Amino acid sequence: MTAPTGGRIGRLQAEMARAGVDAAVVGPSADLRYLACYDAPALERPTLLVVPVDVDPLLVVPALERPRAEAAGADRAARLVSWGETDDPYAAVRAALAGRRRVAVSDTLWARFLLDLEEALPGATFVRAGPLIGRLRARKDPEEVAALRRAAEAADGVALRLAAERVSGRTERELARWIAEALVDAGCERAAFVIVAAGPNAASPHHEPSDREIRPGDALVVDFGGPRDGYCSDITRTFVVGRAPEGFADAWAVLAAAQEAAVAAVRPGVPAEAVDAAARRVIAEAGYGEAFVHRTGHGIGLDVHEDPFIVAGNAEPLEVGMAFSVEPGIYLPGRFGMRLEDIVVVTPGGAERLNHAPHDPVTLR
Ligand code: ZN
Ligand code: ZN
Ligand code: ZN
Fold it and tell me: Please, are residues 21 and 102 in contact by the beta-carbon 8 Å criterion?
């Protein structure tokens, strides 16, 4: 079997064997793109990659989407089995998995398909495939790192363009629309998300862009990203409009030092939570501990958020090729917020930053 995906299904089967899992069933998702190179539509007709632990996989597809799966090269990763409009889509699954006891299903498989599988495979126990596939996806190969680098470059370009924009008098929503277009202009397939949070709104880390006008005296947090060649970007920069709010400069110095400390803590073998602790220590020692209300980062790849999570309690050691965000923030309700986010990749010597847009808050008009 010559997969375009470089033996990823074989590596999954090895993980499954180690975990005592007899089969995996993967629906339309980044997991499917990773394993079979196929971006299947997530619709009511089931598309299921079926991977028994010890024999070759099959990809069950609706007959009308077989040409699409072939065009994507999915037939090089798995044998295609198509089902016609009035056929039972689960007949092939039942035949392939008869007698399998422990079946892992992809994390985002729709509930209706899991319920159908439970009926099709009585006696089977279902577990999450996320931890198994997540371990594989967390370690990027050089082509994946190159794609992440290109995605970060596009996001950096948008951050640089933004630093020259006039923002006073525009609403958060207007600026968010401008950023989304700029991401596409920079080579992204689309904007995956855009946060624009001005003034007190910036104290809400996942603020939804609103009709509030941006005005002098605001701190402005922008956090955005989009996929390029399938791989995601995610960058946050904080700007000030006119003059910075009271207390901003002091908090910024702490935040910048915390981000630096976290990146400096990245090294193969170091537990993921140590990177979080490095940022948190700097922020807590400066008295802003309560204002840092989220984890330090998340893995990034085909999904914006994936393994490894840079959070207290995750003792998983970092490995070469892991890619994740380092994004501490300080949020002071009613006043302002700030966050600084770069994507880094673990290298033998430490961390390579993929984002290079300047860190320090540019003053916008
Ligand atoms: Zn976030
Ligand atoms: Zn972000
Ligand atoms: Zn992020």
Answer: yes
pTM strictly above 0.85: yes
* Angle between helix 130-138 and 8-19 (nearest 10): 130
- Ligand 2 ion: nearby residues, β-carbon < 5 Å: 223, 234, 236, 341
**Cα-to-chain-centroid distance, residue 285:** 30
Distance CA 233, CA 184 (A): 12
CA distance 235 to 225: 6
* Nearest ligand by distance to the CA of 343: 3
Tell me how far the alpha carbon of residue 204 lies from the centroid of ligand 3, in angstroms.
14
The span from the CA of 133 to the CA of 330, in Å, is 33
Confirm if 40 and 47 have CB atoms less than 8 A apart: yes
Please count the residues of the chain. 365
- Rounded CA separation 240/212 (Å): 16
Q: Give every CB contact of residue 337 below 8 A, 6+ residues apart in sequence.
A: 197, 201, 202, 203, 204, 205, 219, 221, 329, 330, 331
Q: Are 232 and 225 in contact (CB under 8 A)?
A: yes
The ligand with the least distance to the CA atom of 300 is: 3
The ligand placed nearest to the CA atom of residue 192 is: 2
Interval between CA 58 and ligand 3 midpoint (Å): 34
pLDDT tens digits for range 119-146: 999 999 999 999 999 999 999 999 999 9
Count of other CB atoms within 10 angstroms of residue 54: 10
Ligand 1: centre distance to CA 204 (Å): 10
Ligand 2 centroid from CA 58, angstroms: 36
